[in-house]
Amino acid sequence: MAEQTDRKCDNPRRIRRLIRLPEVMRQVGLGRSTIYRWMHEGQFPKPVQLGGRTVAWSQETIDQWIDERINSNAN
Question: How many degrees, rounded to 5, is the angle at CA 15 between CA 9 and CA 18?
Answer without folding.
Answer: 155
